[in-house]
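Appendix C: a fully annotated inverse folding record. The material below is reproduced so that readers can follow the format used throughout the book. The structure is listed first as tokens, followed by the designed sequence.
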């Protein structure tokens, strides 16, 4: 009878833990929405897995090294963060008939459900009663970080099921010595999200270490042996992932965007900010009750919960731990999300003590007082909107009262209040989240089958690039969107990217910056850049100047510019890099239309670029208020089409808001100074085509309060004959092997240089007629090499740095694992 009652109780609790994510999913998707955001979810978290799957179908390898289709062509480990070896994404490779958009939404929902169920199984595994385990598991399922990022930044929470499995595996290992679940769960957690696996491993260590019981007479060596025995299975999981972690480390070392360094004072002075723990989706996302129970746990007598609470308190208090958990990159509250299971453990213990009348008044009062002091200090020393301050005060008062009621009257008061507050926050969060979600109608436009057919129809063996164009939102969504392997985009949006290519875009050509995020290599309309990079085809509703409509699929147009550079060619028109860097930014662009720039001392072409500065007038110099239109007047008396180069400084008088100015359809943006990835775009640059005699250009001023000054404009043109000669010897390099080999035939009439638009990377190896040759930088940022006269077989091979060493380390770890399994089996049978 008792067993049947317990089974019914389990079924009820597990059903509720399934229903909660389902209800939240329905609330998000009702009225024509998808469970995904317009920015990172749409532009990264669905398109990268889709690209990885396409690459697998194209190359047949599960271990690619090179992503030719993104950012001009880059190390694929630059994008490892987005699920390159996520075991749950790898399952989608067996389901080609399911769209990745659908698969990711379903997977996020299942992961959310798994979080609650696995947390319940872990806590109820002989640790706490079913009721307390259920309450704590609901706390995890309703945490703002989990509910928010199941539709936003998936990597912030998609490792959580494997972390919970690792905790279950640790308990199982301690009980019966079987560590398979622990090792495999740690491995899967790292492969799912190596960034948050740091916090996950720290949480696992804290959980086990706080359960250590010091015995009288125990030596230091004995304690070391205890820790080694408890954690070496988790270490094996880490070692097994080295095939992945080693090349990721080298990719991050080479391509991670720099961040401002933190001072010693910033790291060591206590930081009492509530959003690390409360409410925010970018912290743990709990309620004030969580802070109270954390503080109350510190006042317990010696026990696992006391040590666990004290450790978490120190982690949250001192920024140095935030910095370490973020890989020493910056201070971000997201690093604390992996500690949510430990907060659930403390909550279950707290509920158990209250329900069993074991919570002493001193512990409850001490927790409330300490939490009240922390709240007061935080509210006085940090900036919060008034409504949030009121909510915090009310939440604290209600929770403190609920604790008192639970201790003397109704035992379930505190758990009921805490979960009610979190449920209220969830509903409010989902309501506000609607503004950030993608609509089904928008997704249908972005993923229109006509676009895919149009892109596929113009693929020509990788000699040229194809990009898509639509409105600003669609362009952002398509920065990483690969319709067909061989499309070879110039755009990329990733936290890691090729530094030479980034510098080329921002410091050599001074391309416009239409987005507020410094990590985005945006879609731009610069005719010079598109020509240099070989973007021959544009698919979409519009195209920049210089492109002509050649076909149409449904409501999707195909545009072509047949005068762009091949992605690889041979030329003897060379300028030295030293001479090139002495030119102004408009002259650099003109120079690259008639010559290639090489890191050589011998030049075949002398610098003769001259961009004439002209008088220019903007219709407004101070914008205050709503968006408006205007005119840019240019003194242009040329009888031929030319390039217009424009720059001006922007001073933002409302630093908390973005500034946007669009000239001739080309947008620039200065992000608000509180942006997570501030773009520092305080000088706007534009490059566009100007028709003969044209002297007026349309300008769109975005809303805000800002000033425009130091307006300068230049007009210049390149010799069309020299441009045609520059591109007259194209080379078709076909992608072969596992997608990391490009090979073909190059003809060099009188000797010259092999020029590519593939970003320079020291991990490339070049073979000419079977002999390895030194790779040079061409055009300041791309791969090139001198060629002798004649016909040559060219082979470019990319080998990701650290990959071989990582595979060797993983194989060694497999050997260690195998030896340990044999040792344990022999010991079990009494042979050793």
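Designed amino acids, in order:
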């Amino acid at each position: 009878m008792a067993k049947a009652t317990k089974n019914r109780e389990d079924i009820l609790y597990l059903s509720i833990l399934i229903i909660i994510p389902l209800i939240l999913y329905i609330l998000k998707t009702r009225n024509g929405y998808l469970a995904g955001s317009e920015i990172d979810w749409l532009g990264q978290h669905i398109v990268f897995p889709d690209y990885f799957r396409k690459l697998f179908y194209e190359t047949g390898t599960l271990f690619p090294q090179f992503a030719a289709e993104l950012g001009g062509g880059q190390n694929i480990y630059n994008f490892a963060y987005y699920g390159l070896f996520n075991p749950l994404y790898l399952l989608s490779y067996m389901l080609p008939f399911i769209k990745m958009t659908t698969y990711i939404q379903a997977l996020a929902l299942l992961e959310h459900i798994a979080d609650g169920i696995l947390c319940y199984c872990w806590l109820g595994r002989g640790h706490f009663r079913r009721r307390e385990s259920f309450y704590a598991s609901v706390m995890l399922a309703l945490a703002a970080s989990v509910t928010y990022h199941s539709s936003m930044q998936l990597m912030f929470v998609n490792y959580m099921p494997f972390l919970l499995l690792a905790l279950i595996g640790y308990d199982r290992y301690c009980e019966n010595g079987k560590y398979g679940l622990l090792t495999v769960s740690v491995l899967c957690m790292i492969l799912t999200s190596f960034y948050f696996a740091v916090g996950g491993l720290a949480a696992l260590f804290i959980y086990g270490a706080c359960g250590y019981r010091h015995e009288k007479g125990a030596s230091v060596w004995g304690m070391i042996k205890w820790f080694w025995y408890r954690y070496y299975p988790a270490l094996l999981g880490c070692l097994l992932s080295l095939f992945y972690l080693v090349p990721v480390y080298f990719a991050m070392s080479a391509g991670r965007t720099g961040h401002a360094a933190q001072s010693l004072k910033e790291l060591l002075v206590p930081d009492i900010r509530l959003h690390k723990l409360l409410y925010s989706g970018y912290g743990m996302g709990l309620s004030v009750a969580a802070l109270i129970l954390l503080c109350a746990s510190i006042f317990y007598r010696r026990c696992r919960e006391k040590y666990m609470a004290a450790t978490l308190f120190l982690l949250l208090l001192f920024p140095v731990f935030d910095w370490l958990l973020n890989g020493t990159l910056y201070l971000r509250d997201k690093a604390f999300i992996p500690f949510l299971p430990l907060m659930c453990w403390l909550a279950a213990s707290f509920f158990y003590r209250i329900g069993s009348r074991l919570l002493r008044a001193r512990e409850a009062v001490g927790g409330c007082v300490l939490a009240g002091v922390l709240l007061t200090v935080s509210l006085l020393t940090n900036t919060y909107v008034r409504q949030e301050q009121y909510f915090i005060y009310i939440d604290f008062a209600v929770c403190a009262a609920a604790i008192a009621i639970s201790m003397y009257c109704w035992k379930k008061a505190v758990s009921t209040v805490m979960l009610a507050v979190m449920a209220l926050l969830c509903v409010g969060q989902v309501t506000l989240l609607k503004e950030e979600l993608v609509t089904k109608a928008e997704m249908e436009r972005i993923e229109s089958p006509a676009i895919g057919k149009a892109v596929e129809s113009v693929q020509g063996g990788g000699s040229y690039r194809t990009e898509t164009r639509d409105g600003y939102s669609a362009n952002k969504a398509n920065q990483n969107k690969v319709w067909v392997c061989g499309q070879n985009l110039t755009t990329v949006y990733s936290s890691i990217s090729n530094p030479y290519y980034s510098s080329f875009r921002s410091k050599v050509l001074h391309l416009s910056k239409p987005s507020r995020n410094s990590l985005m290599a945006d879609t731009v309309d610069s005719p010079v850049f598109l020509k240099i990079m070989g973007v021959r085809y544009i698919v979409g509703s519009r195209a920049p100047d210089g492109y002509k409509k050649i076909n149409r699929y449904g409501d999707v147009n195909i545009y072509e510019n047949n005068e762009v550079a091949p992605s690889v060619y041979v030329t003897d028109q060379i300028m030295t890099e030293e001479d090139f860097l002495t030119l102004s930014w408009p002259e650099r662009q003109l120079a690259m239309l008639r010559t290639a720039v090489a890191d050589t001392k011998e030049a075949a072409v002398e610098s003769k670029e001259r961009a004439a500065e002209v008088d220019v007038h903007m219709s407004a110099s101070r914008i205050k208020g709503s968006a408006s239109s205007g005119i840019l007047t240019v003194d242009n008396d040329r009888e031929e089409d030319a390039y217009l180069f424009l720059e001006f400084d922007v001073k933002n008088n409302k630093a908390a808001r973005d500034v946007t100015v669009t000239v001739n359809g080309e947008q620039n943006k200065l992000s608000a100074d509180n942006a997570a990835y501030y773009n520092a775009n305080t000088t706007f640059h534009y490059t566009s085509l100007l028709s003969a005699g044209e002297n007026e250009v349309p300008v769109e001023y975005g809303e805000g309060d800002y000033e425009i000054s130091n307006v300068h404009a230049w007009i210049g043109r390149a010799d069309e004959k020299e441009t045609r000669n520059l591109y007259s010897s194209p080379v078709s390099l076909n992608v072969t092997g596992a997608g990391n080999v490009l090979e073909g035939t190059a003809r060099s009439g009188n000797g010259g240089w092999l020029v590519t638009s593939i970003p320079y990377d020291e991990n490339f190896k070049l073979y000419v007629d079977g002999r390895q040759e030194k790779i040079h930088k061409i055009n300041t940022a791309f791969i090139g090499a001198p060629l002798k006269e004649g016909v040559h077989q060219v082979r470019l091979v990319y080998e990701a740095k650290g990959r071989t060493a990582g595979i060797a380390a993983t194989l060694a770890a497999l050997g260690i694992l195998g030896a340990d399994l044999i040792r344990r089996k022999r010991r079990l049978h009494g042979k050793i």
